[in-house]
Specification:
By secondary structure, this protein is mainly β. The protein is built from no helices and 9 strands. The relative contact order is 0.44.
Length: about 110
C-alpha cells in the first residue's frame, strides 16, 4: 500500500459550496489538516461550514456555521484525523453568495 501526501485547495467559495476533494477509487484518505480563510474585505463577519459528504449517506459536519471575521483563518482539525473512504468528499460552504472563503486541505492517500 503506497502512502502519498497531497494538498488540495479551493478559492472563492460562496454559499453554493465547493467540493474541495473526493476520494478516488481504491483509495482510503486521512485528513491531516483543513484550513479555511475568510478573504472578504467589506463585511465584518461571515460564517463557514465544512462537511463530510459520505458516498453511502450519513453526511456529517466537521464544523457548522463557524463565525469568522475579515482576514481570519480557522484550523478545523486541531491535531485530529478523519478517515475517508472511496467516494467520500469534503465540501466547504460559505454563508453568503459572495466568494468569501479559501480552503487548504492536507491529506494522505493510501492506495
Amino acid at each position: 500500500m503506497a502512502n502519498t501526501f497531497k494538498l488540495k485547495t479551493a478559492s472563492d467559495i460562496s454559499s453554493t459550496g465547493e467540493t474541495v476533494y473526493t476520494v478516488p477509487d481504491s483509495t482510503t484518505t486521512v485528513i491531516i489538516g483543513l484550513l479555511i480563510s475568510n478573504t472578504n474585505t467589506s463585511d465584518n463577519l461571515r460564517k463557514v461550514s465544512a462537511q463530510i459528504v459520505k458516498s453511502g449517506g450519513d453526511d456529517a459536519y466537521i464544523v457548522k456555521e463557524a463565525p469568522m471575521p475579515i482576514g481570519a483563518s480557522l484550523e478545523t482539525m486541531s491535531g485530529n484525523k478523519i478517515v475517508l473512504e472511496t467516494g467520500d468528499a469534503i465540501k466547504i460552504i460559505g454563508s453568503a453568495v459572495t466568494t468569501d472563503f479559501d480552503a487548504s486541505l492536507s491529506i494522505m492517500e493510501m492506495t
